[in-house]
């Protein structure tokens, strides 16, 4: 009887651990937020799981000028971004501790296999990245050091 109880508890613990890992990898669904930079507000989808971050904006046909995708990383680091499956150019705004630390402007749509594999990385560790339509960072005059505000929905 005790042996069966120990086996049942062991199975329960394994199931809980596997479920927790799946939630971390797959994510809990589409989360949204607002990102404010100066007086400009972007409605963004939040990519916080590995799966959401890997997919990013791939396959989308367009993005509104007040829309974007916010990548949130659990630890600051040098994260690589690529344009695989992208249909429109973007600006990537590298963020650490709610300040812009770099801007990758006008990242082009891939036209070859080599372009699909080209990666874009920040110069310094980041804990967030914001993807918006190409040209908007320049249009709105976003600068390194500028504060951002994130309002979760």
Structure in a nutshell:
The protein is an alpha+beta fold. Helices cover 26% and strands 39% of the residues.
Structural description of this entry:
By secondary structure, the protein is of the alpha+beta class. The chain has one domain: Jelly Rolls. It is built from four helices and nine strands. Strand 1 and strand 2 (40-47) form a beta hairpin. The longest helix is centred in the N-terminal third of the chain and has 25 residues, at 2-26. The protein is globular and about 70 Å long.
List keywords for this structure.
Jelly Rolls, two-stranded antiparallel sheet, seven-stranded mixed sheet, 26% helix, 4 helices, 153 residues, 9 strands, alpha+beta
At the fold tier of CATH, the topology name is: Jelly Rolls
Overall 3D form: globular
Q: Beta-strand percentage?
A: 35-45%
Based on DSSP secondary structure assignment, what is the total number of beta strands? 9
| Low-confidence regions | 12-29
Largest sheet, if any? 7 strands, mixed
The CATH top-level class label? Mainly Beta
- Series of secondary-structure elements, N-terminal to C-terminal: HEEHEEEEHEEHE
Which CATH-level-2 architecture?
A: Sandwich
Name the CATH superfamily assignment.
Answer: Protein of unknown function DUF192
Q: Could you report the average pLDDT, rounded to the nearest whole number?
A: 85
Q: Taking strands numbered 1, 2, ... along the chain, how are they ordered across the largest sheet?
A: 6-5-8-3-2-1-9
Distance between the termini: 49 Å
Quaternary structure of the protein: single chain
Task: Using the CA coordinates, give the radius of gyration.
Answer: 19 Å
């Amino acid at each position: 009887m005790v042996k069966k109880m120990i086996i049942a508890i062991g199975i329960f613990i394994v199931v809980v651990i596997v479920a927790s890992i799946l939630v971390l990898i797959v994510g809990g669904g589409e989360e949204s937020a607002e990102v404010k930079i100066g007086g400009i507000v972007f409605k963004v989808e939040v990519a916080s799981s590995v799966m959401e971050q890997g997919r990013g904006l791939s396959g989308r046909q367009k993005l509104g000028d007040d829309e974007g995708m916010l990548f949130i990383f659990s630890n600051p680091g040098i994260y690589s971004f690529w344009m695989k499956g992208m249909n429109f150019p973007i600006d990537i705004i590298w963020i650490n501790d709610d300040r812009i630390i770099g801007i990758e402007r006008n990242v082009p749509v891939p036209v070859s296999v080599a372009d699909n594999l080209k990666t874009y990385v920040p110069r310094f560790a980041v804990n967030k990245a914001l993807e918006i339509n190409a040209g908007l960072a320049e249009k709105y005059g976003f600068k390194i050091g500028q504060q951002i505000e994130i309002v979760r929905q």
